[in-house]
Specification:
The complex is a heterodimer of chains A (894) and B (493). Chain A is of the alpha+beta class and 894 residues long. In chain B, the strands form five sheets. In chain B, strands 6-5-7-1-8-11-4-12 form an eight-stranded mixed sheet, with helices on both faces. The chains are: A alpha+beta (894), B alpha/beta (493).
Chain lengths: 894, 493
């Protein structure tokens, strides 16, 4: 460690030393800002403004501090207090305070910059993407424009680009990158036999497996999981969102549309069911079912998470720090966090147990019924009323959740989620708009006969409704009924009372409520149609949590949280985007839809760059900006900003946001097709392959490792979509308190589905995927960090899944090799690597086979334990196959 | 000057390259170095993250000479009642059964208490023990005998009164999911002394994982290699460590040898140092397969040790885990985290009653913890092993009245304002009692200590300045103690 620190210091000195030689124009972003960020901003920036002076925003830096002196006077370093304070000898006055002084080189840069006029630039990633000049490079190596940027950059680093990779390597590489596992022989033949690389790439891009592969990537960003999180971490039904992603990737939905639907699909005019499902992107936030928790706290936590996720994963900007103070390094102000939060603060969700709002999925018969209800309503009520009632059937919204009740007497929120009332109890539900409403539809259960009353103005106020309720046969089951209410105008606080003389024990609940929906009610004609409506409403159907915006009479105000704490709320703010990044497009509504239009406008400097950088990282193992999560001034320096901007511009303008076109362009570059062998020179000059003078060579992701093993051993079940599956995992991994949930191993073919379909429990994710750097998906993680550990070896060596697949691979190879064991070894290797085995490697495996065979023959029991039957030959071959699945060349993309 | 530095740099790179050098890919170090060599683009990315992805568990030195080499953290999940164990409050007995004073309730929120609850006297009998005169109740007769080895924090406070967030705060420094656990930070900072065992081991008992799930030993935004490895008393002690059925030790050895030989050939062809790193990981995996089950097998311990700890091999129990913890630290594991579930004594049933269930829970841990202290002492390991005991919060001096009615049994609700923890060994001054609560044990009066202070103290004993062990993520430097944490000076000597 100390060695590293020493060296960092040495490198910096070296860098500055060489810089000081040049007499050129000082560049703010690359020369000045790093010095300020490193030495000044902690005390004179977003968090603190010591001495009343900040260097974060231009107007602050050019202003007076507490001392009354102007910090930076453009063109006049000698007259700038900022420079004077760097050079004083009094340690009390000299800056940085109580730290080592800046080096004379650093002071030199700052001085020159001010003398040259102190040009204050935006950080590059905050400036809209410009069309780039393609470098003039003429050589035989370059195949497309990407290569010209790469070549020029590599040359500057003194690196020589590499020749094309062996065809087998390239065929495997492209398949792993596009579909996530090796291609079939038939597909590969397009390239290996017919030499049509582009056709091969096209064919991979049109495979349905492409969508599954790229969805895997998106799920980390969406923090997708099949459970709700927190203590109980109970199941959540949200897999249709995962399927939506697969379809969207496969259909090559333009990326701007892809984002618009996920951010604001519900606000589209007449949104389709798919567009509603897309909004589940932001319903992957966690829900807390633990008793005694504050629903508003966790609703707020979900909203904050939506804000942070939107910025980090879609706009490559760390935003969460702005929750408490202005961004320490980038020009985003504290208030702007809350203005942005206001876009997300008016969705209907409230940390309810059922995760309302939901989209209810009807079966075919129910869909026919819905059509019938629709046409009945079309004939009898206004178009608006019809729409309201049909939307209610589909989403159960807009309803008042009973967990919003307060002023409870002899009543409580059961498990903090449902209003439960006893004999002689009361509760209040604030701010309900009853204007024009004639009926209440409520979801509740009642255990005893009793009278439920609703009043306005107080417990003894005007009666809105008084109802005698009694349990049905299935005592205490949830049901939904409609009750008439007295005409009441305007917005009122409602007071609920419940009385039941039958309840002798004063401590026993008599009634429990889930939600209240006030409406004009159903038309009174056609009892048959009414019955269809009620059957649909009471039907138990699968449902997906979605985003729905609050209608005006439900809307919430957004306030600043002082010091980031939701408990101390300050001034009210309205929705806006940070000023440094422009404003909503003209005519765009000031809601999530408008926000999505701003994000996907070509003026937005971050969205295209972030996605291009991410796609690049998926393919090359490292982004053009290494920190995918932060393109801001505190992120890594781009290795090739011109290329990033070139591709981002083309992505938006030429490819019309087509992700497939972007991937194809990369695949067709000479850069991508390079051999990945390292030369000693390459290793010395560019150990981590930032400048791409060789092809990518990186370990496969957790998902790729599983999927590839399934393909190699010939058991992959290509079935797409549907509820998550539970492949083998060791006993006793799940042990959640207060939850009877169990890992129920899926049957037969579902054992062999792709990793993307594996059930994801947040507090206990699938263990072998975690070993290979999977993430918990509690919050979004935009970049997995690849590690190399012995626990990974243990997975592929010993996990029953991989032993089982080794047996499958052995049998498959054996039958192809017509029971010739030596030939089977060769076959198994070809399945695993896509190329013929070299003699040296074959000899090693053959020796392993023979040694193992001798051992198995000595103890025939062992082979029986492995296979169920005593078969030393097969057992030895299984061992060889297990070893093949563990080879570096198999778990690595070369 | 430039030339000399450049030469030194290249020589260093060469040396490191031979030894699997790929640091630059994460830390920005390589990029920084090259940038400096090639021109003016000196990077702005700070190099605060101190690990090498190719050898992330390489041993590292802490900031200063450590007092403790390892930590055994005994977390009683569910939160034990300090009023029945350590925080003796005779005044509370006088108010038993009376209405709780309004001042305790105004503006306060409880998980389950509603309306006005009754005060509830301690159900235990207290006595002073040892030279230090430590107050320990009759619920913990064994522990009382080692009173002088313990140091108490009597005024621990937290700001979370639900299990999952409070456990997260205690173990990760944040009540929200997504931050690295203490053990992960320690592993990130120290690496591993013993490559044949996981660096950070978690052992659970009591029938359930802690409420916050595996996130309390997760690595958060640190690389997943730093997460705790849950070892189990039943089945494989470490997941996938056992050779599969039908694959014997020599067969496994032969196959790992073959894998590594082929990987050597692959390295010759591709020249990627990561291949060498993979070879060493497979060697380590094999060694781990041999030594981990050995270390994690308590059967071979002598009978007197079993009697001392109250262990019954083959079962999952807290006592077994405690004995295992001793074996692990003996073998160089830095952080052993035990979770014992079932301390949530609300009084809704007999198992959760402070005069029934709690006594049983105490019986399950009392002997084993005492044995751990004595056993470490006799092995000369207590000085370098820090033992930490505690829950995620405390319990109310009022009886719980769930939904406004008295509970069926005697129980206490969650209480964030005052509870007791203790530490022993690892350079902690023995026999200290720090902090005090008011006469009813409701609030901390003096010597308040919060979870970040506990964390800072543990890190201090391990040789870390808790403010300096950081990791850059989402644009800022994170640390275990967030923006807080003070070392409890009264305990560290």
């Amino acid at each position: 460690m100390s060695f590293q620190r020493y060296f960092v210091g040495a490198f910096l000195m070296l860098g500055l030393y060489s810089c000081s030689v040049f007499e050129e124009k000082i560049d703010y972003s690359s020369q000045v800002k790093p010095i300020i960020n490193k030495n000044c901003i902690t005390c004179h920036g977003g968090v603190k403004k010591q001495g009343g002076y900040s260097l974060l925003f231009k107007e602050e830096a050019f202003a007076k501090g507490k001392s009354g002196k102007i910090g930076i006077v453009p063109g006049n370093a000698a007259g700038s207090e900022f420079i004077r304070r760097l050079t004083l000898s009094d340690p009390e006055e000299r800056m940085p305070h109580e730290k080592d002084p800046l080096s004379s080189d650093e002071i030199n840069i700052l001085t020159k910059w001010i003398d040259q006029g102190a040009e204050w630039e935006q950080h590059w990633s905050f400036v809209p993407v410009q069309k780039q000049e393609v470098p003039q490079v003429s050589n035989d190596w370059a195949k497309n424009d990407i290569d010209k940027f790469i070549f020029e950059n590599a040359e500057k680093q003194g690196l020589k680009t590499s020749a094309m990779a062996p065809k087998e390597d390239l065929a495997r590489r492209a398949a792993l990158d596009i579909i996530g596992f090796p291609a079939t022989d038939k597909t590969k033949a397009l390239f290996l036999k017919n030499n049509q690389y582009e056709t091969y790439v096209d064919s991979l891009l049109s495979s349905p497996a492409y969508g599954e592969k790229w969805t895997s990537m998106w799920l980390d960003m969406a923090r997708y999981a099949d459970t709700k999180g927190y203590e109980r971490d109970a199941g959540r039904n949200i897999w249709r969102y995962r399927d939506w992603l697969i379809n969207a990737f496969n259909a090559d939905m333009p990326y701007d549309q892809f984002l618009k639907e996920q951010i604001a699909g519900d606000l589209f005019p007449e949104p389709t069911e798919n567009q509603l499902i897309a909004t589940a992107f932001h319903r992957n936030t966690m829900t807390n079912d633990e008793g005694g928790t504050d629903n508003e706290e966790f609703r707020t936590a979900a909203v904050l998470d939506r804000v942070n996720t939107t910025w980090e994963t879609l706009m490559g900007t760390s935003f969460s720090c702005v929750q408490c103070h202005s961004h320490p390094y980038d020009p985003i102000r504290f208030e702007e966090y809350y203005k942005f939060l206001a876009f997300f603060n008016n969705s209907r969700d409230e940390d309810t147990y059922s995760e309302y709002p939901v989209l209810r999925h009807f079966d075919e018969k129910q869909r026919a019924d819905l059509t019938r209800v629709d046409s009945w309503l079309a004939k009898t009520v206004s178009a608006n009323e019809k729409k309201e009632l049909v939307n209610f059937l589909k989403t159960l919204q807009p309803s008042h959740n009973s967990l919003k009740c307060d002023e409870m007497v002899n009543a409580a929120l059961a498990d903090t989620k449902w209003l439960a009332m006893r004999n002689n109890s009361s509760a209040r539900l604030k701010s309900v708009n009853l204007e024009g409403k004639t009926n209440l539809i409520m979801h509740f259960k009642v255990y005893v006969k009793g009278v439920f009353e609703i009043k306005t103005g107080g417990l003894n106020g005007k009666t809105v409704g008084s109802y005698k309720l009694s349990p049905e046969k299935d005592k205490g089951a949830w049901r939904t009924i409609e009750l008439p209410i007295n005409a009441t105008s305007g917005v009122n606080d409602l007071f609920f009372t419940f009385k039941s003389p039958e309840l002798k024990d004063p401590n026993v609940n008599g009634i429990m409520f889930d939600y209240f929906y006030f409406t004009k009610g159903l038309p009174k004609n056609s009892p048959e149609d009414q019955m269809v409506f009620w059957n649909l409403l009471n039907a138990q159907v699968e449902q997906t949590p979605i985003m729905l915006e609050n209608p005006a009479d439900f809307s919430r105000k957004t306030r600043i949280f002082e010091r980031g704490s939701w408990l101390s709320q300050g001034n009210e703010v309205s929705a806006a985007v940070p000023a440094a990044l422009g404003k909503l497009p003209e005519d765009a509504p000031s809601n999530r839809l408008g926000l999505s239009l701003w994000m996907t406008s070509k003026e937005n400097p971050l969205v295209a760059r972030t996605m291009v950088n991410r796609v690049w990282e998926q393919i090359f193992g490292m982004g053009l900006v290494e920190t995918l999560e932060d393109l801001g001034s505190q992120g890594a320096v781009p290795t090739n900003q011109a290329l990033l901007d070139h591709l981002s511009y083309k992505f938006m303008n030429d490819y019309k946001w087509s992700v497939k076109k972007l991937i194809k362009e990369i695949m067709l570059s000479a850069t991508y097709q390079q051999d990945s062998k390292l030369t000693p020179e390459g290793l010395e000059k560019d150990p981590s392959n930032r400048y791409l003078a060789r092809g990518p060579r990186v370990r496969l992701s957790a998902e790729q490792i599983r999927d590839q093993a399934l393909v190699i051993s010939g058991v992959l079940n290509t079935k797409m979509y549907g509820p998550p599956v539970m492949p083998y995992q060791p006993e006793g991994i799940w042990n959640s308190p207060y939850s009877g949930d169990k890992w129920l191993k899926s049957t037969n073919e579902d054992q062999y589905r792709r990793a993307v379909y594996t059930f994801w429990k947040r507090t206990s994710p699938y263990p072998s995927m975690m070993s290979f750097d999977g993430v918990g998906r509690e919050i979004c993680v935009s970049r997995r960090i690849r590690t190399n550990t012995p626990l990974q070896a243990l997975v592929t060596l010993n996990d029953s899944v991989y032993v089982d697949l080794s047996v499958k691979l052995a049998n498959k190879s054996l039958s192809l090799a017509k029971n010739n064991f030596q030939e089977s070894i060769k076959k198994a290797y070809v399945f695993a690597t896509g190329k013929e085995i070299k003699k040296e490697k074959f000899d090693i495996l053959l020796k392993l086979y023979q040694n193992t065979l001798t051992l198995y023959k000595k103890t025939p029991n062992k082979s029986k334990e492995l296979l169920g039957d005593s078969n030393p030959e097969l057992a030895a071959l299984v061992l060889v196959c297990n070893s093949i699945l563990n080879l570096d060349e198999v778990i690595t993309k070369s | 000057m430039e030339k000399i530095l450049k030469e030194a740099l290249i020589r260093q790179l060469e040396k490191e390259t031979r030894r699997n050098f790929l640091k630059g890919s994460f830390m920005g170090l390589g990029g920084l170095a090259l940038g400096s060599m090639m021109g003016c683009s000196s990077g702005s990315k700070t190099a605060n993250n101190i690990f090498d992805p190719q050898n992330p568990l390489a041993p590292q030195s802490p900031h200063f000479a450590p007092k403790a080499k390892s930590v055994i953290y005994l977390h009683m999940a569910g939160a034990p009642s300090q009023l029945e164990l350590f925080d003796y409050k005779p005044e509370l007995a006088k108010l038993d059964g009376q209405d709780c004073p309004q001042s305790f309730l105004e503006g306060k929120k409880f998980a389950f208490i509603r309306g006005v609850p009754k005060m509830l006297a301690s159900q235990a009998v207290f006595k002073q023990h040892g030279q230090s005169g430590a107050l320990i109740s009759n619920y913990l007769p064994h522990l009382s005998t080692v009173a002088d080895d313990l140091s108490f924090l009597k005024a621990v406070t937290t700001d979370q009164f639900n299990h999952a967030p409070a456990q997260l705060l205690m173990q990760t420094g944040s009540a929200r999911l997504g931050r690295p656990s203490m053990g992960s930070w320690v592993t990130y900072g120290l690496g591993s002394e013993n490559n044949n065992l996981p660096a950070f081991v978690v052992l659970t008992s009591g029938g359930n994982n802690p409420d916050a799930g595996k996130s309390v030993w997760g690595s958060g935004f640190l690389p997943s290699v730093y997460q705790g490895v849950q070892c189990r008393s039943e089945g494989d002690p470490v997941l996938f460590i056992k050779d599969p059925n039908g694959i014997s030790r020599d067969i496994r050895k032969a196959s790992i040898d073959a894998i590594n030989e082929i990987n050597q050939a692959e390295f010759k062809e591709y020249g990627d140092p990561e291949i060498l790193s993979r070879i060493s990981q497979y060697e380590m995996a094999y060694k781990m397969q041999i030594s981990a089950p050995e270390v994690m097998n308590i059967n071979s311990e002598p009978q007197y040790i079993h009697e001392m700890y109250g262990t019954k091999p083959g079962k999952t129990s807290f006592a077994n885990n405690v004995l295992l913890a001793r074996k692990l630290v003996e073998n160089g594991v830095r952080f052993v985290q035990l979770y014992d579930w079932g301390w949530d004594t609300h009084g809704t049933d007999a198992g959760g009653a402070i005069d029934i269930g709690l006594i049983n829970k105490c019986r399950g841990v009392d002997k084993a913890i005492t044995a751990l202290i004595l056993d470490l002492k006799q092995r000369g390991l207590l000085d370098e092993t820090l033992i930490v005991w505690g829950g995620e919060f405390g319990r109310t001096p009022m009886a719980e009245n769930r939904d406004g009615k008295p509970n069926a049994f005697k129980g206490r609700d969650h209480h964030a304002e005052a509870f007791t923890m203790f530490m022993a060994g690892g350079g902690i001054k023995p026999g200290v009692s720090h902090g005090e609560t008011d006469e009813l044990g409701y609030s901390a009066l003096a010597g308040k200590v919060n979870p970040h202070d506990i964390q800072a103290t543990i890190m201090n004993q391990l040789g870390f300045d808790h403010e300096k062990l950081t990791f850059d993520f989402q644009g800022r430097s994170f640390r275990l103690t967030d923006l807080e944490g003070k070392v409890v000076k009264e305990l560290v000597g």
